[in-house]
Design brief:
- By secondary structure, the chain is of the alpha+beta class.
- It is 32% helix and 21% strand.
- It is built from twelve helices and 20 strands.
- β1 and β2 form a beta hairpin.
- α2 packs across α5 and α3 crosses α5.
- The longest helix has 38 residues.
- It is globular.
Length: 545
């Protein structure tokens, strides 16, 4: 008798490992869906993906953040969320397989997942207390129960009565045969898995609906906002400020194209009817709490101001110019009794806090030195978009965004640099960071292949609150030649420039540098963005045909 005849193998032996992995995946995504639904009913920012993602951002080294911004741009948050989901999926698959032998241990693993989410949610700067742990805890409990049920359907049920210990057994309908007459509940597994998948999908839709409910109210509130005419309108953009050269950045950046760099995985959608701004702290003799309607009733000013992110590398895209409308920060602070340090005021730092817990520190002296520092309410003729800070944000000309441009602002505290380190300073960035003089070639693009003859080289230069005096261009190792600057709108905006280049065939390197109104010319030495912004000259390589 052959070995096969002595121990015949069932022709329908179940593939347990893939089914165990499937059980883990279903349990993991059910846990996530339930958690997000609970978060939608309580506070969307307490959901495990957002909470864990936020915690990961907080602990990511500056060099890694710069890499993510450089390589993924404004999609960096989507990449992070997809990464979290990928890790969750892998974790769930492993737990499902492990549960085939260690069901209780795997269930404990799901609870561990919930504990991580709960700790991340309650540890966020904008946490609302223990209630923020609820989504992760409830989701983990749901996932644990489902994993236990599904893996239970895969467990051997013992020999089928009346079958020999070896050989081809008879089996009740809906039960899969295993060696030695053991069976598993195929029908029960299929029913439970199908029901779990359907319930998870439905719960996911419910989570999206609940999370969007608050956003819909906020969107209605924003649509109902009518910005009053500014008491001090912006000067008309001078003729010649916008060059008619294909490929050059427009003088005014459309709101939809304006760069966005922040740590918010979920854009806060603030209902303006319940929003307020509190101003308090050291040297504030008259603390105030301001409503949105109260701000609209004040005199508004309108200004064209260019903003720059400190993560913008030489020649990078994270700079934009917009027309902002809002209230002078200096007026608000003066009403509160704030005096600048140069005149004996005790506070030298203004700490702005957003609704998502971000803190940004700004030198009080810069806000009160006469520049058009704004509590902005509008952008390019409309209320601020949600992604750019609605209902209110700070805009301070001449400072990088991480020390001036707090979005979704709800609190301003006057303090000192010695007493408090804001978010980015805690992570190694400089306390004070004026924007560095920079220049960028917009056209031709790197590795372009223009035809020989006159090629228009053009771009933008910026040195906010100092202004651009001149732009120079160099071809290969030749002499520096002055480019033609466009008309200047103000020293707080970028300035376009152009240069008609007599291009000859072959490969060439084009390099630009700018000089600001203080006489400072860009340095040749390139530096990284940390700790206070990148230095160096932008260049592009082209091949003339």
């Amino acid at each position: 008798m052959t070995e096969t005849e002595r121990h015949p193998r069932s022709p329908r032996r179940p593939i347990r490992l893939p089914l165990g992995a499937l059980s883990g995946a279903l349990a993991g995504f059910a846990a996530l869906a339930v958690a997000e639904a609970v978060a939608g009913a309580t506070r969307p920012q307490a959901g495990p993906v957002v909470a864990v993602g936020g915690a990961a951002i907080d602990r990511t080294p500056a060099a890694v953040k710069d890499w993510a911004i450089r390589d993924f741009g404004t999609h960096d948050k989507l990449v992070l969320q997809l990464g979290i989901l990928a890790v969750l999926t892998l974790f769930a698959l492993v737990l499902g397989i492990a549960a085939l032998r260690f069901r209780r241990g795997a269930a404990a693993g799901v609870l561990l997942f919930g504990a991580v989410g709960a700790l991340a949610a309650t540890g966020r700067p904008d946490a609302s207390g223990a209630v923020d742990a609820l989504p992760s805890v409830v989701g983990a409990a749901a996932g644990t129960v489902l994993l236990y049920v599904l893996v239970g359907r895969l467990a051997p049920r013992g020999p089928v009565p009346g079958t020999p210990p070896h050989g081809e057994e008879a089996r009740p309908h809906g039960e899969e045969t295993r060696p030695h007459g053991e069976t598993w509940d195929r029908r029960g597994f299929v029913i439970a898995a199908s029901a779990a998948a359907a319930a998870t999908a439905g719960t996911g839709l419910l989570a999206r609906s609940l999370s969007g409910a608050g956003g819909r109210d906020a969107a209605v509130g924003r649509r109902n906002v009518v910005l009053p005419a500014p008491g001090s309108p912006a000067r008309p953009v001078p003729r010649g400020a916008q060059l008619r050269i294909p490929g050059i950045s427009p003088f005014v950046t459309p709101s939809g194209d304006f760069y966005r760099v922040d740590t918010a995985l979920v854009v806060p959608e603030v209902d303006v009817t319940g929003w307020s701004l509190r101003i308090h702290g050291t040297g504030v003799t008259r603390p105030v709490t301001l409503s949105y309607d109260g701000l609209l009733r004040r005199e508004l000013i309108e200004r064209d101001i260019t903003l720059t992110c400190v993560s913008n590398e030489v020649g990078g895209p994270y700079v934009g110019n917009a027309r902002w409308i809002g209230v002078r920060l200096a007026d608000l602070l003066a009403e509160c009794g704030v005096v600048p340090p140069s005149k004996g005021g005790p506070a030298d730092q203004l700490v702005a806090r957003s609704v998502d817990g971000m803190t940004i520190g700004t030198p009080v002296e810069d806000v009160l030195d006469g520049r058009d520092a704004l509590l902005a309410l509008g952008m390019n003729g409309a209320p601020l978009p949600f992604e750019h800070g609605f209902p209110a944000r700070m805009v301070v000309p001449g400072l990088y965004g991480y020390v001036s441009a707090c979005k979704w602002i709800q609190d301003i505290e006057l303090t000192t640099f010695d007493a408090y380190d804001p978010y980015w300073v805690e992570r190694g960035w400089a306390r004070e960071a004026p924007v560095k003089t920079q220049c960028r070639i917009d056209t031709p693009k790197p590795f372009a292949r223009p035809s020989a003859g006159t090629v228009m080289v053009a771009g933008v230069a910026w040195a906010q609150h100092r202004g651009i005096d001149k732009v120079e261009i160099r071809v290969d190792d030749g002499p520096w030649q002055e480019a033609r600057p466009a008309a200047e709108a103000s020293r707080d905006t970028w300035r376009q420039w152009s240069f008609p280049w007599k291009a000859t065939k072959g490969g060439h390197t084009l390099t630009v540098r700018a000089t600001d109104r203080t006489g400072e010319t860009q340095t040749e030495k390139r530096t990284r963005t940390a700790p206070d912004g990148a230095d160096g000259r932008h260049s592009v390589v082209v091949t003339v045909e």
